[in-house]
Specification:
By secondary structure, the protein is an alpha/beta fold. Helix content is 33%, strand content 25%.
Length: 400
């Protein structure tokens, strides 16, 4: 799967003959699975029509700072918050100078100031303009602020001269963005995650399950994928849309999840067992149980402890468990950490309006000789914080 899949790329196009290459760049980005929105300066529309880029991106091209069709006429804020990355290609000498000065008198420069997304700039201009001391100073200052540069290239220019200043070819710009998204802290690591509940059949139409929504595990999978990990997500039944990961495996029962997890653990560097696996399963009736007696007794049998099985493997991955508790959170988590031989455990209180079926969570994380409290925050944000801690402990135990 492409590292650009589902990445939100805001492409800024400024004036210059190289603007025609924006069409090919948009096509390549969309082919790689990126979601592309385009912002054009008025000068850019003199070289390529907005309609061309709208057709290729599948989205409206944005041109005006004050757009009455946007919510509260604040389109620049919406775009700034939407983008995972802003790319300006081509970036003219004039636009680069305005970015350096922090000017914001058109849509493109304004949203660059209003966004916290990484900014990548692909310059395109005459060789003399590129080599001018003012342009070089502007570029130097932008780089010192964290702006990333793609190019320029050297060669024959539209004016007939030859030298530095050509827009980098679209395929090379694409490669630069791919490298940007693949250099996350988890790059090179294979992560296995189990998430969601399991369903244990009582008869062909009924089952026992629990309140797990899978939101925490799915958030961990997406955040790890965004940070460069190769992610395999094994999920019990949920109502969630699966995140874009390298491998997504649907399972139903604890037995199914055990088989999938043990298979995935053979090649994983780390395993996060965030699934709420049933501790007991009914002995399934072959036919639908009919309503009759005022009471019904179900015979339950203990399921195999998945995370304990992974932790006991001879060549095991770094193993992270979860503990959802209604009481004595720390005591129960520490027992589980020790008895199952885990490297780390994340414990959270569950009950009314906390833990399951909610969008936020808090965690108390324990490992041998240490602990850390992660305060309540949306699970999407909490996932990134927890992954940072897991990676820190992983590297501490794998110093090479």
């Amino acid at each position: 799967m492409s590292v650009l899949s589902d990445k939100k790329i805001l492409l800024g196009v400024s004036g210059g003959i190289a603007a025609y290459k924006a069409a090919e760049l948009v096509r390549l980005l969309v082919t790689e699975g990126a979601i592309v929105r385009v912002v054009m300066t008025e000068a850019a529309t003199q070289f390529i029509t907005p309609l061309t880029l709208e057709a290729l991106s599948g989205s409206k091209v944005h041109r005006h700072l004050f757009d009455a069709s946007e919510t509260s006429a604040m389109g620049h804020i919406d775009l700034a918050r939407w983008a995972d990355l802003i790319l300006i290609a081509p970036a003219s000498a004039d636009l680069i100078a305005r970015l350096r000065s922090g000017l914001a008198h058109d849509l493109l420069t304004t949203l660059c100031l209003a966004s916290t997304a990484p900014l990548w700039v692909a310059p395109a201009m005459n060789r003399v303009m590129w080599e001018h001391a003012a342009t070089q100073e502007n570029i130097s200052i932008l780089k010192s602020r964290g702006v990333h540069l793609l190019g320029p290239d050297q060669g024959i220019q539209a004016c007939g001269e030859s030298g530095p200043g050509r827009l980098l070819e679209p395929d090379l710009i694409l490669k630069g963005l791919q490298q940007a998204f693949s250099r996350g802290p988890w790059t090179g690591l294979r992560l296995l995650i189990s998430a969601g509940p399991t369903r244990e059949p009582i008869d062909p139409v009924r089952y026992l399950s629990n309140r797990s929504s899978g939101k925490m595990g799915y958030a961990l999978a997406k955040a790890a994928q965004d940070q460069g990990a190769a992610v395999t997500l094994i999920s019990g039944p949920t109502a969630l849309t699966p995140p874009k990961v390298d491998h997504f495996i649907k399972v139903e029962t604890a037995k199914d999840m055990l088989a999938a997890v043990l298979q995935g653990a053979l090649t994983a560097d780390l395993y996060i067992g965030s699934a709420a696996v049933a501790d007991y399963a009914p002995i399934m009736a072959p036919q639908k149980i009919k309503k009759g007696a005022p009471t019904l007794t179900l015979e339950l049998q203990k399921t195999v402890d998945i995370i304990g099985q992974v932790s006991s493997l001879e060549q095991r991955p770094f193993t992270v468990g979860f503990a959802a508790e209604t009481e004595n959170l720390e005591a129960h988590a520490l027992v589980k950490l020790k008895n199952k031989g885990l490297d780390l455990i994340a414990a959270n209180p569950v009950g009314e309006h906390q833990g399951f079926e909610v969008d936020d969570n808090e965690l108390m994380v324990f490992w041998e000789g240490g602990q850390r409290f992660l305060p309540k925050t949306p699970k999407t944000d909490l996932a990134a914080v927890l992954l940072t801690l897991i990676l820190e402990r992983y590297h501490a135990s794998h110093p090479s």
